[in-house]
# Entry
Amino acid sequence: MFAIAGLMGFCPVFSVAAWSMAYADLEGIEQERVDPSGRTMLTWAHNLGMIGSIGSMILFLAFLMVAMLVKLL
# Structure
């Protein structure tokens, strides 16, 4: 849910939270501390969280660049 909410732009913090929580659980699966039945969903959450986080950073940097260009004109 966090990955989808972050990807839709509600709050980029959700993308970071989904990315980090899914990463921790995937590491737990590798170390056999977490049940591996949800691995596919965790992989999707990890990837969507990563895409949402990076996309939010790119949009933020683009906004800053446009704001600086407008200020110069």
